[in-house]
Structure formats: C-alpha cells, structure tokens
Amino acid sequence: MSGSGKWEVEDLALRARRARSFGAAADAYDAHRPDYPLAGMRWALEPLGSTDVRVLDLGAGTGKLTGVALAAGARVTAVEPDEGMRTVLRDRHPRVPVLAGAAESIPLPDNSMDAIIVGQAFHWFDLPRSFPEFARVLRPGGVLAAFWNDHDDSVEWVAAFDRLRHSSASFPPANPEPDLPTHPLFTSFAQSVFPHSQLRTAESLTATIATHSHALVIPEAEREAILGRLTEFLRSRPETSSGTFEMPLRTTVIRATAI
User: Fold this and answer.
1) Could you list the pLDDT tens digit for every one of the 259 residues in the chain?
2) pTM above 0.70, yes or no
3) HEC string of the chain?
4) How far apart are CA 154 and CA 15, in angstroms?
5) C-beta separation of 256 from 144 below 8 A
6) Count of beta carbons in the 10 Å neighbourhood of residue 20
C-alpha cells in the first residue's frame, strides 16, 4: 500500500486510541451514524454478476452496512471485534450470524465468502496482516469493497461546519486524492463516489459528531466546547436552524477482486 490520507494513518498511538473508542458509544453510534447508498452496494458487488451472494461485513460495527447488503439481496455474516457493537448489531439484525473477530484474524474458513465489505473501518485495519486474510476467506474472483461516508464540503455551509468540528485528536487533513491501496493478491482497486444524505436536526447532527472517534477520546471539557459551538453554528444558519434538514454526504466506495 502506498500514499496517505483516507487509507492509512501515521500517528499509530492516536490511531489505536481512536480505533478502540466506539464500543462505549455503540447505542449513540447506531442512533446517529448514517447508512450507505444502495447504489454503492450494487456497484461494489457488480463484478460478481449477482447480489445473491455470501458477504462478510468486516468490522461491522452496529450493522449500518449490513442492512444495505441485506437490502441488496446478499446473505450476510458479520464480524466485529467490539462486544458492545456486536450486541447492538444482533438486536438490529437478529438473523445475521455475528462473530467476534478482526480483519487480521477472520474467524471463517478458506474460500467461504464471495465478497468482503467494510463500512467506515478499512483505515483502522493493519493492512499488511489483513490482505492475506481477505484473500484466504474470499473465493477466487471474490470482491473486497470498502465504503466511507464523508460530508459533502462542496456545499458552503457544510464546509464552514467542518472547519469548526476538529479537535485536538483530529488527524491532519487527508490528501483529497490519496493513492489507492495495492496488494499482489488483488487486482487494482477501482473507485466510485455516490451522492448520499441523512435527515438531521441541529441537535442530532451535533450528536452524530459526538460519535466520531476524535470526539470520543478527548477530554470532556473540550468535547462539550466543540459540540456547543457546532450547535450554535447550526442554529445560526438558515439552512439548518428550523427543524429537520438534509445533511449532504458523499459515499466513496473502492473495490478490487481476489486473484
């Protein structure tokens, strides 16, 4: 893998703290994080020629991406390292097998999946250790796809909002066009971006930011100050001050196939 930004993080200690931060906020994460566009899932699975396939949702969290894969017609197994997240996932999707595990050690047999999908978690994986596990679990020609929701900062008020939400634990700004990951066990990654949105209020959008890892690991006083200025900003803008509004998002999807 080469490059920086979305695909890798240089500050390993901060990366580890942020990666472990979500479990205690599992209920809030499930309540406030957005889902993913169905069009993005269909594009991710397109190389398989069908959506009636065996899919592993890896680093599944509370099942935000699991639900989209199910809606696309896939048969989903979820693997998630955090017990709190797994508990919420089982409640949300009681018919989906949910296993404890991680990208670096996937508790599934060889050649047992047609696709591995990853929502908002690929950048937390130890990729040199994970890619051989991806290839082991996938059948030849199986798909590896990762999804990220980001704010659409081409919208002026969204860009202004984003400038206010950073904390002392935020990573440096990402390269807007990072090099895609590479590995000899996979074809080159393709990338596509899909428009998406989430219905929010000033209060619920602020609550969404509170579930981001950089906000979870900072001192309480700093978190309250950041969330306070975000709420004040949203209440001051005509686009967001009166009831519900659509939060503009962009969903980036990358996909490759096992060789």
Assistant:
1) 223 345 454 566 655 665 565 555 789 999 999 999 999 999 999 999 998 999 999 999 999 999 999 999 999 999 999 999 999 999 999 999 999 999 999 999 999 999 999 999 999 999 999 999 999 999 999 999 999 999 999 999 999 999 999 887 677 666 556 689 999 999 999 999 999 999 999 999 999 999 998 888 889 999 999 999 999 999 999 999 999 999 999 999 999 999 9
2) yes
3) CCCCECCECCCHHHHHHHHCCCHHHHHHHHHHCCCCCHHHHHHHHHHHCCCCCEEEEECCCCCHHHHHHHHCCCEEEEECCCHHHHHHHHHHCCCCCEECCECCECCCCCCCEEEEEEECCHHHCCHHHHHHHHHHHEEEEEEEEEEEEEECCCCHHHHHHHHHCCCCCCCCCCCCCCCCCCCCCECCCEEEEEEEEEEECHHHHHHHHCCCHHHHCCCHHHHHHHHHHHHHHHHHCCCCCCCCEEEEEEEEEEEEEEC
4) 27
5) yes
6) 15
Q: Tokens representing 82?
A: 């955090």
CA angle (36 as vertex; 76, 154 as ends), nearest 5: 160
Token pair for 63: 């099942």
What are 129's two structure tokens?
């250790």
Q: Which two tokens stand for residue 121?
A: 């978690």
Instruction: Tell me the two tokens of residue 18.
Output: 């942020």
| Phi–psi pair at 222, nearest 5 degrees | -65, -40
